Amino acid sequence: MTSNEAKDLVRYIMEEGFNKQDLSVVERSFTDNYVRHGYGGPSANSLAEHIESLKGYHSAFTNAGSKFSKW
Fold first, then answer.
1. pLDDT per residue rounded down to tens, the chain (71 residues)
2. Structural domain for 11, as ranges
3. Domain for residue 55, yes or no?
4. Chain-centre distance of CA 57, in angstroms?
5. Any idea what DSSP says for residue 36?
6. Total domains, the chain
7. Of 44, 47, 46, which Cα lies nearest the Cα of 27?
8. Coil, helix or strand at residue 44
């Protein structure tokens, strides 16, 4: 994967999966054994745990989103 392809993938996951809350994007973009190490929040030891935490985040912060100005 080139650096531009990696940037496009991250942008896709953040804009479609996170900003638009389409968790099917997250399911398609990560493997089942995905691990998220805590970054000021709890860690997730699987894709299922990550998705559950995203659901909680989206329900608590309904207008949350990320914006990218430059790559």
1. 999 999 999 999 999 999 999 999 999 999 999 999 977 778 999 999 999 999 999 999 988 888 888 75
2. 3-60
3. yes
4. 11
5. B
6. 1
7. 47
8. strand
